[in-house]
């Protein structure tokens, strides 16, 4: 009864992350005794802060292991709403907060509610590749718009005007952006929202790297309009990647549909993670997060000039996240091959530009500063020696 | 800049769970001081077993909070494969195990890989409603096939022959089934697989209530063929609902696509849950689970004749899960209204048949024995008094 394999066509559009193969190869090299400097990993090297761990352990000891409501623990939805008031001075009704299994869960849920098959969603290229794949997964059409350093690698009203058509239903931006680390200010968010809303479209803003910024804190898009969909996560700033916990702030009118779909799609976000996250906004945790932010800033402040000195061009000032998107065109016209050579020949793992799109992707490498200062210095020394 | 709400058409097909409204109303009544007997809840009343809790707490103390590989912790994939060897005598390559955020995550991932837009998936009516909604979510077409007590409320080869057409790509069954508790034996699974494979289709078997059976243990569908897709979960038998952890066993040829999509769809299952689940298969945990199974059996052995005595008809012997699907046609031709009256008038919460489909749904109620014996006895007494 052996069966031939038959796979849905949408899978053709879902590219593998090249960095996963590279990471797997780097791990094998490490097992073989090679020293590897990891600058490819999109995950903070810090563990979850102690108070969150303690709250998670306490919740387990108390037997908090049953399902929560699909939209999340009421106390957590209130805590998230309060966070917007204290951090951003923005009032959010807790009823508008949807707690999700990671930001991926939030975006997938949202796209399923907003995007009919064949409808288009505008995205930046370069951009986080899962976003366009999640559009494909609901059989929408991701429209990758080439963005340049001059515009901070971000979509602006001119892009919306040029690419929006009758099939387009939404535009999505990320601030701070992965892979570029660039942010959108209040005026830029407002101009974007006007351009999208003038076309009766939805604006989705990914703020999962909020908090990890190295200058003035950017505003949340919710300070521009309550009609913007904002996605955030406990993964990056709060150091809770493996717990799989994120959230979505949506206009009130969409909450019943999001609730109904969440009940079917994932029932609820993980319960231990939700109880643990109740401790994420306390003063003790925030002090830890701020110390980590300072550490990330120190790394960025070291790595940015160091890479420039070697000969990489970093044209748009990265103000957040933990990435530098560096033009390597002085060294190669094929950054994928360069990334592989860097790993093989000097044991430095970085992510090739093609993981983030196709626009000039072969010119770029992404450096993640998710490792310690001594490791970064070692990596830079190896790069300098190899590329000189 | 206020926006009108626009929601994707697929949401029209995603019905709310009526039981959620009923549950919310029951909770409000309890807050107002009413005594409610809950026989609507599809979740074990037991907490997660101690050894699993302890392992979860230990993992947190050790800082196991980063992402795992998308397919799951290698040690957990091996433990799941070993479980098939010890419990079922079936050899499974650990490479074929995909660890997922709950069985919902497993089914959604699988349907996205198997079902192109417009393609059909055969399902039983009555059946677990999320299944048809998840088919809709990938823009497939769920074909709900009326099933009768005589066939154990299960799909058989005759249904496959009658309903399969050129657009059909898969059939899905559950054993034990929700809401009927009926199971499929080796011969039935084999006949189904032959019928589906003869049409070059996929067979998906939901085994999330495996372990919770009150007679001979049914075989896993994997003992029939390695080409069957089997979904299972730590939620029900292992008492880990809120942790959101399940798994999928797939033929080897599908693993690369499942891996690629899992990376995009949810990155990985929750890390603390995966470490905790490493303790699920130990002797100490299994002894706890078996004691709970005995408790569920005692409840079923009480409730089944008690409901029949009142006048409910339970025509197909429920041999697993924790549900009784009872025909209430002696009392009503509108079980939804009856469910609401039972809650309002005697404080007994049950799930109306319409949550599980449309076929004769108005004749049926689902009773969950996820509460204690004294509560069940109280519920039966109230039902008897009300319906006499």
Strand order of the largest sheet of chain A: 2-8-7-6-5-3-4
Q: What proportion of the residues of chain A is helical, as a percent range?
A: 25-40%
User: In the residues of chain A, how many domains can be counted?
Assistant: 2
CATH fold-level name of the largest domain in chain A:
Aspartate Aminotransferase, domain 2
How is the main sheet of chain A built? 7 strands, mixed
Quaternary organisation of the protein chains: homodimer
Spell the H/E element sequence of chain A: HEHHEHEHEHEHEEEHHHEHEEEH
Our estimate of the beta-strand percent of chain A is 5-15%
Which pair of protein chains has the largest interface, and what are the residue counts? A-B, 79 and 79 residues
Low-confidence stretches of chain A: none
What gap, in angstroms, lies between the N and C termini of chain A? 60 Å
CATH architecture heading of the largest domain in chain A: 3-Layer(aba) Sandwich
- What's the overall geometry of chain A? globular
> From the alpha-carbon coordinates, what is the Rg of chain A to the nearest angstrom?
21 Å
Task: Count every beta strand of chain A, where a strand is a DSSP E run of 2 or more residues.
Answer: 12
Q: Give me the CATH superfamily of the largest domain in chain A.
A: Type I PLP-dependent aspartate aminotransferase-like (Major domain)
How many H/I helical runs of chain A? 12
* SSE class of chain A: alpha/beta
Mean pLDDT of chain A: 95
CATH class of the largest domain in chain A: Alpha Beta
